Amino acid sequence: MRTRSPLLGTARLLAYVLWTCALIPVQILAVALKRPLARTLPRFYHGVCRRIMGIDTVVCGTVSAERPTLFVCNHTSYLDIMVLGSLVEACFVAKSEVALWPFFGLLAKLQRTVFVDRRIGSVGGHRDILQRRLTDGDCLILFPEGTSSDGTRTLPFKSALFAVAGLRIADRPICVQPVSITCTALDGMPLGRRLRPVYAWYGDMELVPHLWAMAGFGRLTVTVEFHPPVTFEHAGSRKALAAHCWGAVSAGVANANAGHAPTGEAPPGAPRPSTYSLDFRVDWPNVIGAGRVDRPTTTKSGG
C-alpha cells in the first residue's frame, strides 16, 4: 500500500498557483493583442506545470507536423490537459460547462479553448466554429468520448464532431491523428487498476479533493502514443473515421495498461521517465475527501 505526503502536495500546489498567477497577465495581454505568443505560451506553461506536479511522459510515435491537425484522444483526467498541452501546440475542444468553472474556466478561455454544447441541435453551429479555427491554422484536441473514464478502457467515440474533418483547408484534407494517453506507473512501479484513480478523475469525483490528493503522491508516468494520421477521405465517413480512431486509441490504451511496449517509435529527443522515487504508501479509498468515493464499474481491457 502507498500513502501520500501532505507536505509534498502543499508544496506542489503552491508552486502551481504561483506559476499560474504569474503567467495569467501575460496570456491575457497576448490574447487581447492577438500576438503569436497566445499560441505558443500555453505549451511552455503546461510543460512547467507538468514538472511541478511530478508527471513524467513517455512519448511514442511521431507528432503530426501538418497545420491544421485534429488530434483525437481518449480522456481520463483533467491532467490530460496538462500532459497533451505540454506536447503539442493546440487548442482544446471542451464541453460548455467548463467555461463556467471557477479559475479553471478562466485558464481554459486563455488557452483559446473551443467550448461546445454536445446536444444534437448544436452540432451544426459548433462545426462552423471549429471550421473557422482550423481555417486560421489552429490545431485542435478533441476528446470524443464526451466524458472521462477510469483509464481501464476507452469509451465509445461520439461521431458528431468528426464531421469537421470532412472540410478541406487550402484544398487539402484535414489531418486527423489518433492519440492514446495512459497513466502507467507511480514511482516507477506499474499502476494497477486499484491505483489508477490517483490519475483518473471521473464519475462523481470532486475536482479539488482529487487534485489535493494527487499532488501528494510521488512521480506519475504517462505514456502518450501518437498513432499514424488519417483523413476523412481515407475513412469514407465521419462514423467510419470515429471507428478507426477509436480502434487505434483503445488498442494503444490497452497495450499501455498491459505493460507492453507501444507500437510507435519514440521521436528523437522524446522525454523519458525519471528514476526519481519517493517511498510513499497509499490506501486510495481513504485519500479523496472525508468519505468513500463511488466509482462506476468498468470492463477491464488489456490488463
Summarize the structure.
The protein is an alpha/beta fold and 303 residues long.
From the structure above, extract its key features:
single chain, 303 residues, alpha/beta, eight-stranded mixed beta sheet, two-stranded antiparallel sheet, 8 helices
Order of helices and strands: HHEEHEHEHEEEEEHEHH
Helix content: 25-40%
Report the portion of residues in β strands.
15-25%
Class from secondary-structure proportions: alpha/beta
User: How does the overall form come out from the CA principal axes?
Assistant: globular
Uncertain runs are 264-303
Instruction: Describe the largest sheet.
Output: 8 strands, mixed
Roughly what is the average pLDDT, rounded to an integer?
Answer: 84
Rounded to an integer in angstroms, the radius of gyration calculated over CA atoms is 19 Å
Alpha plus pi helix count: 8
Distance between the termini: 20 Å
What does this molecule look like?
There is one protein chain. With 303 residues, the chain is α/β, with parallel strands linked by helices. The chain is built from eight helices and ten strands. Strands 1, 2, 3, 4, 5, 8, 9 and 10 form an eight-stranded mixed beta sheet that branches. A two-stranded antiparallel sheet has the order 6-7. Strand 6 and strand 7 form a beta hairpin. Helix 1 packs antiparallel against helix 2 and helix 2 packs across helix 3. It is globular, with a radius of gyration of 19 Å.
